[in-house]
Amino acid sequence: VQLQASGGGLVQAGGSLTLSCAVSGLSFDDYAIAWFRQAPGKEREGISCISRKYDSTYHIQSVRGRFKISIDNAKNTVYLQMNSLKPDDTAVYYCRVATDMANYWGQGTLVTVSS
Predict the structure, then answer these.
(1) For residue range 50-109, what is the model confidence (pLDDT) as tens digits?
(2) Is residue 22 classed exposed, middle or buried when 0-12, 13-18 and 19+ CB atoms within 10 A define those classes?
(3) Which residues of 30-56 are buried (b: 16+ CB within 10 A; e: fewer)?
(4) In the chain, is it the N or the C terminus that has fewer CB atoms within a 10 Å radius of its CB?
């Protein structure tokens, strides 16, 4: 199983970015995919999750209404569309799949939001 995250960068407050997580080695039908982030000096936190099996998504309160998680089955890729970005959104963003055997993480992509 491999996860390849990309799409981070520098953006001004109020701007938008879309992160991508290309997944190989497993089926979206069986597992939920989540996005986490880790800001400088803080613990890693889960922010968004999507389950194709249960046709559901979840976003934590601080990003709800601004971020949207989605799946492109044809490309085996999960996206995190981020709008109305704030300096507090500055962090390294990771995608993760949790299976019965292990947790698989992407390598992280840095998002920096300037004020």
Answers:
(1) 998 889 999 999 999 999 999 998 999 999 999 999 999 999 999 999 988 899 999 999
(2) middle
(3) ebbbbbbbeeeeeeeeebbbbbbeeee
(4) C
